[in-house]
Design a protein that fits this description.
Layout: E1 22-29, E2 37-42, E3 48-57, E4 60-66, E5 74-77, E6 83-88, E7 93-99, E8 108-116
Antiparallel strand pairs: 1-8, 2-7, 3-6, 3-8, 4-5, 4-7
């Protein structure tokens, strides 16, 4: 939500900072029903990364990541800033499942990026 106008913002990309070490970055709509959306990014086992994500719209999203050491099941309320989790790659690909813990809350969009750490 835009604090100045009270309008629901539906473009998540501007709320996620950009970095030169970004491995992959996408903006995706998250459907109101079903299994949500799947997102993946290449990794090399042992390398360290930060997974950042933000959502806009009405509601919340649940983010579960597999292939790295990040804890699964993080919930983010849309409009309350972005989240970032550091992880170490255990597999050659990070697989992220994005879903809605509370369906039927209107349009929702997520921006995600995987950033390589030195």
């Amino acid at each position: 939500m835009d604090p100045a106008t009270g309008a629901v913002v539906t473009d998540a990309a501007p709320f996620l900072p950009e970095f030169s070490a970004t491995v992959k970055r996408d903006v995706l709509p998250v459907p109101e029903a079903g299994d949500g959306v799947q997102w993946s990014a290449p990794m090399r086992p042992g390398d360290r990364f930060i997974l950042q994500y933000v959502c806009t719209g009405s509601g919340a999203l649940e983010v579960s990541a597999y292939g790295g050491t990040m804890p699964v099941g993080a919930v983010l309320v849309c409009g309350e800033g972005f989240a970032g989790k550091e992880l170490t790659a255990e597999l050659p690909e990070l697989s992220v499942q994005i879903s809605r813990p509370f369906p039927r809350q209107g349009e929702l969009e997520v921006a995600l990026q995987l950033i390589a750490l030195p």
